[in-house]
Each structure stands twice: as C-alpha cells, then as structure tokens.
Design goal:
Layout (H helix, E strand, L loop, with lengths): L4 E4 L6 E3 H17 L4 H10 L7 H7 L10 H23 L18 H5 L3 H4 L28 H29 L11 H13 L7 H16 L6 E5 L6 H16 L3 E6 L2 H15 L4 E4 L5 H4 L3 H13 L4 E5 H8 L4 H4 L8 E6 L9 H14 L3 E6 L15 E3 L4 H7 L3 E9 L1 H9 L3 E5 L3 H11 L5 E3 L5 H16 L4 E5 L13 E5 L3 H8 L11 E8 L8 H16 L6 H15 L10 H4 L9 H7 L7 E5 L4 H12 L4 H7 L3 E5 H10 L2 E4 L3 E4 L6 E2 L3 E2 L13
Parallel strand pairs: 3-8, 3-9, 4-6, 4-7, 5-6, 7-8, 10-15, 11-13, 11-14, 12-13, 14-15, 16-19
Antiparallel strand pairs: 1-2, 16-17, 18-19, 20-21
Helix pairs in contact: 1-2, 1-7, 2-4, 2-7, 4-7, 8-10, 9-10, 22-23, 26-27
Length: about 725
C-alpha cells in the first residue's frame, strides 16, 4: 500500500493516494490534449506535474508541518532530463501549473524563472525519487504535432502549443481535485450537441414571424448565403454584411451548420464591448436555450439573471473552462486569455480547439495588438481545428497581415451589391460648428442622436439641451443605469415620442436603436459607419442623415490613436463622394495600417517568443503583463445605485468570501482614471473598503440620475437654454 498522498480534506478524514491523483490527472490531460494530436504530451504532463509531492517535506506538510515544499520543480527537472528539448516544453507547464507559465531566464540565481527551477537539487526541493517505484513515465514522444504558420514566427507557434498544453494540464488538475474534494459534479456535464442546436435554430426560423419588406428580403438572402457556404472547408472566413443586415443570426447560422458539417464542438462569439454582449447573448438564449449559452464577461451575474438553479450552476462551472456549446465573450477576455500565463485564464484554452470562432466587429481589435491577435487566429485555424469568421460591416484588409499560407474566404458573393441595396443613410458634412449651433440643430428635431468623442464634451452639450427632456449616455453611468436609460429611449422611439440623446461612442457598438438623424463629431471612418448604423436602421425613411461635424469645443480634443483615425476619416470624406463605399473603406484602412506600421505590435509581443526561439527560451510572464487591451491605469468605483447594489456592498463588507458580491457589483461600477480617482479621494466622496474597493458614499450627491458620476472640480460647461 502506498504511503504517499496527494492531498487530504481539512478534517484529515479522507486522503488521496498520490499515484491515483497522477494517473487520474494524466488521463484527463491526455483527453484534453488529444483534441490537438498531443495525447502523449498531455499524459506525461499529468504523470509528472506533482511528483515533487513524493518528498518527505511535502508529506510532512500534508500532516500539518509548516515546512515549505516546492513540489512543481521536480517534474520539470525530470521532463528535461528524460526528453531534452521536448521535455523543456513540458517543463514550462509543470513548473508553472500553480504559479503560471514562467519566463525562461538564463541566470540560476534569479528567482521566478524556469532556468532557476531547473537548477534545483534535492537539497532545495527534497528527495522525490520514490516516484520511480510507483509510476511509469517510459513513453516516447514524437515530434511536435504543429505546423509553423510562418517561418518567421516558429517561436510563436511553439509557445502557443505550450500554452495549449498548459491549459490541458491545469484544467485536468482542477477537475481531478474537484472530483476528490466534492465528488462528481453533474453540473459539469455538457448535454447539448451541435445537432441539437441546429434543430433549435431551424425550429426558430420555421416559426419566425416574417414581415415582407425589402430589408427582410435582403436579410434572408444573406442568411441563405451563410447556410450555403457553411459546407466549405474549414479556414478563415470574412462575413462583410452592412449594418442592419442581420449578421448576428446569419453568422450563427453559418457557424452551427459549419460545425455540424465538420464535427466541431462549440461556437465562440467574440464581441468588442461588454456594453453590447448582453443583447447578443439574449438573442442566442431565446433561440438556443439558457443552458446552452454562456455569457463570459465582467458584467454578467448568473445569479440575478438566471432563475433555474441547475442551469445557473452549470454555467458557473462552464465559465471556468468553457465546456458549453455556445460561449459569448469579449475581445478582452478572448485575446488576453490567448496571451495569458495564469492557470485561471488559460484553463479554458484547450476548449477553443474544434470550434467556430466568430469575431463580431473584427475591425475593433485594437490596432496596437493587431499583428499578434491575427497571428493567434491563424494558429487556431492551422493547428487547432478552428474556423474563424471575421464579421463586420467595415471589413479591414487584414489579409495583408496574414502569413503566406493563410488566406480569407468570402461568405458573401457580392458585397458591393449588398452595400448598394442597404444604403439607407447619407453623410452630410457640416464643417466646423460651435456647440451653440450644434444644440440648435439637435433641438430642431423631434428625434435625434448626437454622438461625441469625449465624456466631457457629452456632459457639456447635454447641459445645453437637457431642459428639452434629452437623455445623457456615457460610461460615467453604471451598466444598470445605462441599460435602464436605453430602455426608456427605445420606448419613446417606438411610441414616436420626442427623443433627443447625447452620447459617447458607446452607443455605436451594436446598441439596437434607430433614429431618423444622427449628429456625429468627426472620427475614424469605422466609427462613422457604426454611427450611421443607429440611423434609419429599418429603412423606414427614404433616406436617413448622418451629419458629421468638427467642433470648436476645448473639451473635445483627441489624442493619439483617436486623433489619427479622425484625421483619416476627414481625408476620406473629402476624397470620396460616397465615403462609406467599400472602396473608400479599403482606402481608409490602408492609410491606417500603413501609418501604424510596426505599432500594429506596439508592445513587441511577438519578440518575447522569437528572440530565444532556438533554445525554446520564451518570456510568457512578460508577454502576459504587456498584452492588455485595456491599460491598467483605471480604477472601478462601486455605485450604490439601488437596493440590489446596497445589499451587495454589505455582502462585500461582511462576507469572508466576497466573489459573489463582486460579480453582482460589476453591474454597478464606473471606471475612472488615476487623476479622477485622486479627485474623488481628495473630495471625501468615496470610502475604501478592505483597503482595495472604492465605493461611493450612499449620501453622496455627485452621482445623478441624469448624467451618472460627476467628478469634483471638473468643469463641464454651463447650460445655455436653446
């Protein structure tokens, strides 16, 4: 009988043999990695990851000793000893299965590197040699089952493979541990198959209440093209559908039919902003069922939004590793996970294998990270049996960024024809106008939307028209507040009542709303197209108008990327009679990509995997810290907006485990910059709970129903009655 244990329960009543944990984890990791033809790699990872627990130091620790025990270095050392360079690939995963994938390093004395871990001996980590009497690792590894997507980026391909192996291991380790600690969890089971989803989708279309109109006939054409092309071979596809063309349902129809054709397992729908994810997820849930659709993003609280406990539990588990048929997530969550090094973010990666991944509004991938993001998509397609769909109304020429052995296939046969047929909005250039003139123009309409580039400018213009019953919309309003405001706006529009709105560009990102006229401060052409998508959306009017202007306001100054895109937008407007034409859009993105050049990988993410590739010296930790779509110099402020928020704040204060309260409170947060946080702290308007959570005081008067959070000492302009 073995005397070596992997773990015990808190009361020391139940013990798990170490060899059982290793064999169980190995089988799960083997199954995970088999999906990308790396079963032997996965099995070895499972067998080796915890052999350091064979040391007396670790066994003593299990029995209550306070002695430190490094149990993850041992397996990494044995992997390299037995398998050389292929073993180094395993070593990254084993050494980091708790702490995260490490930088390679080359100096033994520097802690926190793989090199440092591999130099350790028995005197540092204990004698773990007893593993040889209990487990067998005599397995031959073949060559890597991956093909470089580019001869210039071999290091990236290998590092991507390591991260996929890491995902296979850490998910297996979590699942096996959970099995011992909690017993078998029925909620982990994924019941629905792609065939079931296709049946539900077809049933939805069969029962759809169809209203005959030109727009709906065109939407049907697009849907049919997507279904017809779904039998194409796997690869990278472009779905260039004009705004209002029904691309949400059509892209899902392509994905589910394509998955059925090729035996793929899930659909992952990637959206640029959390502000629109709820809308898309609700659409899919209505058709495909709550239990089959996971919303995975910062603002989703399954407890408050899903009544059925079993479904809620299933989705909470699925959020950890994406074991669910449909995942709706954000660019930030998806891409930052692909470049992450921590187990919590990487755990789901192996479940991207054998999927269709739809990138909605693909042009919204930040240009500073475009090269590594596109290369990651190519890796998924070439080596992990993924089909990618770049879905957008303004298709950027990303083919220029693709390696030679990657290409894009068009789903829509004649995008020029569709563009002409969907043309519902005319752009009118108002030139340079002041805010007074702008407000006069807004006020002269019964229903109008004005989109501005900065929150300060929005606040300034809103102050001049609010007496007309106008709405304000910005990210200084917490998500619950914004949703409530948008619902009121929609109700007024549907009832043909007066509805004037002044908003930041957050309303451009897929908010399903329809105005007869939209005023838009000069911006990049892709943003202008999105603004036009909020105008005459259903084609009820003969022609809607997007009225573009340059402003004199000092509160509207743009910097950096936004200033650049705005200038290019102005160039295209001046050069083309129809600046929204496909030719004009192509020219815009060519200008943008040419000027950006090397800054399409602004943080030099790819260098972290190429400089030391000959020795498999990768810098996983450094790359993960640098690959951030949203820079971290912002801070969330919790708003006690309603009774739900106030209850969750109390939970946060008094509960030892605040994760559930924090999930709820994500719906009640406003994000501010460093300097804005300082003003709030100096003004005494916020409390700091548990030394880390910033909460607006309940009796504060700096959050209003009209405009949300008002930062003290910020001048937003005085109101002028129109």
């Amino acid at each position: 009988m073995s005397k070596y244990y992997a773990r015990t329960t808190e009361d020391y009543k139940e013990w798990q043999y170490l060899k059982d944990h290793l064999y169980n984890t190995a089988e799960i990791a083997k199954r995970n990695a088999a999906k990308f033809n790396a079963a032997d790699f996965g099995y070895l990872l499972g067998m080796l990851h915890d052999i350091g627990k064979y040391s007396e130091e670790f066994q003593s620790r299990l029995r209550g000793s306070k002695i430190q025990a490094d149990h993850s270095s041992a397996g990494a050392i044995e992997a390299v000893k037995n398998y050389g360079n292929l073993g180094k690939i395993l070593a990254y995963c084993i050494a980091g299965h708790h702490s995260g994938l490490l930088n390679s390093g080359n100096i033994a004395s520097i802690e926190g590197t793989l090199f440092n871990r591999l130099q350790k001996g028995y005197e540092q980590i204990g004698d773990y040699s007893a593993f040889k009497s209990e487990i067998n690792i005599d397995i031959k590894l073949s060559n890597l089952p991956i093909v470089p997507v580019s001869e210039e980026r071999v290091g990236f391909t290998v590092s991507f493979f390591i991260r996929m192996l890491y995902s296979s291991l850490v998910d297996a380790d979590f699942l096996e541990t959970e099995e011992f600690m909690k017993g078998y969890q029925e909620a982990r089971e994924n019941d629905a198959k792609i065939e079931d989803l296709l049946e539900l989708l077809n049933k939805f279309y069969d029962n759809f209440e169809y209203i005959d109109s030109k727009i709906n006939r065109l939407r049907n054409e697009i849907l049919q093209m997507c279904i017809d092309k779904s039998t194409s071979e796997k690869g990278i596809f472009s779905l260039a559908v004009p705004t209002g063309g029904g691309k949400t349902y059509s892209s899902m129809a392509f994905a589910i039919n394509h998955a059925k054709t090729h035996g793929l397992e899930r659909i992952i729908y990637v959206i640029p902003y959390t502000s629109i994810i709820e809308q898309n997820a609700k659409s899919f849930k209505r058709v495909l069922g709550d239990k089959n659709v996971l919303e995975h993003h910062s603002s989703f609280d399954s407890e408050s939004e899903i009544e059925d406990y079993k479904i809620r539990q299933k989705l909470e588990y699925a959020s950890e590793n994406w074991n669910v048929p449909i995942v709706v997530t954000t660019n930030v969550q998806f891409f930052e996970s692909l470049f992450a090094n921590r187990s919590s973010k990487c755990r789901k990666l192996h479940n991207i294998v054998n999927s269709v991944v739809i990138f909605d509004e693909a042009q919204m991938i930040p240009t500073d990270y475009l090269k590594p993001s596109i290369l990651a998509i190519c890796e998924l397609v070439k080596n992990y049996n993924v089909t990618a769909v770049l879905c957008t109304a303004t298709q950027p020429p990303v083919e220029k960024l693709l390696p030679n052995n990657c290409s894009i296939k068009e789903i829509i046969d004649n995008p020029e024809y569709l563009y002409e047929e969907f043309k519902k909005v005319k752009l009118k250039d108002l030139g340079v106008i002041d805010d007074y003139s702008l407000c006069e123009k807004i006020a002269s309409n019964k229903q109008a939307l004005c989109i501005l580039n900065t929150r300060k400018h929005v606040r300034e213009v809103f102050g001049k028209v609010k007496h007309l019953g106008a709405f304000h919309l910005s990210t200084f309003m917490c998500p619950v507040h914004r949703s409530k405001t948008i619902a009121k706006m929609k109700e007024r529009l549907e009832n043909n009542e007066k509805c004037l709105v002044v908003s930041t560009q957050l309303i451009e990102a897929g908010v399903d709303i329809d105005f007869p006229v939209v005023f838009r401060s000069m911006a990049g052409l892709d943003s202008l197209v999105q603004s036009a998508g909020r105008c005459n959306r259903e084609g009820v009017l003969k022609e809607g108008y997007l009225q573009v202007f340059k402003t004199k306001s000092e509160h509207a100054k743009l910097r950096g990327h936004l200033e650049q895109t705005s200038k290019f937008g102005e160039i295209i407007i001046n050069e083309f009679e129809d600046p929204f034409s496909l030719t004009a859009m192509k020219k815009y993105f060519e200008l943008l990509y040419d000027i950006k050049g090397s800054s399409l990988d602004k943080k030099s993410i790819l260098d972290y995997f190429e400089k030391g590739r000959s020795n498999l010296d990768f810098e996983f930790d450094s790359a993960a810290k640098e690959f951030k779509f949203i820079e971290s110099n912002t801070h969330p402020i919790i708003i006690p907006y309603d009774s739900e928020a106030k209850r969750a704040i109390k939970e946060l204060i008094f509960n030892t485990y605040p994760s559930k309260a924090l999930r709820k409170l994500q719906l009640y947060t406003v994000t501010v910059y460093e300097n804005e946080l300082k003003k709030l702290l100096d003004s005494g308007e916020i409390d700091v709970l548990k030394d880390q959570y910033y909460v607006l005081k309940e009796d504060s008067d700096i959050y209003s129903e009209e405009v949300g959070l008002c930062i003290p000492e910020v001048d937003y302009g005085k109101a002028i009655v129109i």
